[in-house]
Amino acid sequence: MMIPWGGVGCCLSAAALYLLGRSSGRDAEVLRSVARTGSLKDLAAILDAASKVLPLVVAVSGRVSSDTPLVCQQSGMRGVIVEETAEQHFLKHNDAGSWIQDSAVMLSVSKEVPWYLDDGTGRVYVVGARSAAGLVLTVASEVFEESGRTLVRGTLDYLQGLKMLGVKRTERVLPTGTSLTVVGEAIKDDVGTIRIQRPHKGPFYASPKSIDQLILNLGKWAKLYKLASMGFAAFGVFLLAKRALEHFLQKKRQHEFHRKARAAAAQRQAREAEDGTSAGEPNSKKDQLVLEICVICLEQEYNAVFVPCGHMCCWMDHAESSTIVRGRGRNKRKWTWDEDEELVKALCEVSLDPRFRVQGGGFKNCYTQGIESLLAQRLPGHGIKASPHVDSRLKVLKRKFYSIKDMLASPGFSWDGSKKVVRCEKERIILEPRV
């Protein structure tokens, strides 16, 4: 039984989506359970009242501020986190001989200064916000600087298969004054400074959305993941069940065939026992005849092997009874000697008929139809058609005729009209060594 990899893949995808949905749902439940502060000044009292053993995960909101903000070089914006990237754009000569556009990062710099959230009642410093989930930096500026073209630079680029277009410089910043919600572990040092950092276990978010919006989005994604997992699981189970049903029906058909084969073998042995053909003679082979009979007549022992599959399931008379052989071409026909003889006679008659001849020699396009009508009169019931039977057979006969003609044109070969064979002088035969 072949493994239905499509169904297995759908089931594995369903399991992965289910785990993602479960993780999102778990994060949403954790966010619902975190402590919320109405104002930052209340956070100090909450920390003093909290247990010293377990970490305190809270959600705070405020505006981004810093005593020493960074200033962007391109846009002049003030921020607490600044990322600068320089990306080289160029055309690359590929193997097909055309130019394709590509890019490569030349420079990536990230800067961050100590910053805090301020709601007018207090301050809470944020540590390690770059690794927090949901943090999106604002694009402050994008500048494209075209590369200068000189003769030396152009020659070097041509030798390397490159055409420099320019450099794209991008600045991303977390501006001061941005409203931000941070979910993390709150700690208080010896001097009374309160910080929010990544907890050892638990969520760590820094997003412009409120805590309620974060919970709503996580719950929505959890539902979508679970619905998608249910769809993939249903489709995967359908594919697995379909393959299992096909395998069951195949085994059932095989069992039914074996039952019929055993019944046919039993009937044959019963007839042979009545006729006395096997009385008094040990015949162990016929005792094992259950699976060795022809699948067509269910009577004779099989003795024909089909090439190239190697199946041995038919009796020779059944294998040769059909005049149409299925092969690489469609409706191949096995011609008999009588049919070939009548075909040649019909061809000679058509060659003398002015309806099918053209001036200067040759035949009209419809001459094979004349041959078909003559063969239908002389060989009724054989079903020989002009196309593809007559056309295909004439091609074979022409190929053999020209092969014999080339042989007779060579010295030492002659035609024996009585036996219809090509004769060759003994000294003309050249034996070539086998490789």
* Widest β-sheet, arrangement of strands: 2-6-7-11-10
Query: Strand count, sense and closure of the main sheet?
Result: 5 strands, mixed, barrel
Helix proportion of residues, in percent? Answer: 25-40%
Mean pLDDT: 80
Ends apart, CA distance between termini: 43 Å
Q: Quick one: overall form?
A: elongated
**What fraction strand?**
25-35%
Count the E strands: 18
H-E order: HEHEEEEEEEHEEEEHHEEHEEHHHEE
SS class: alpha+beta
Question: Number of helix segments?
Answer: 9
Q: How many whole angstroms does the radius of gyration measure? A: 45 Å
Uncertain segments:
278-290, 318-326, 428-435
Keywords: Membrane, Metal-binding, Signal, Transferase, Transmembrane, Transmembrane helix, Ubl conjugation pathway, Zinc, Zinc-finger
Subcellular location: Membrane
GO molecular function: ubiquitin protein ligase activity; zinc ion binding
Membrane topology: Multi-pass membrane protein
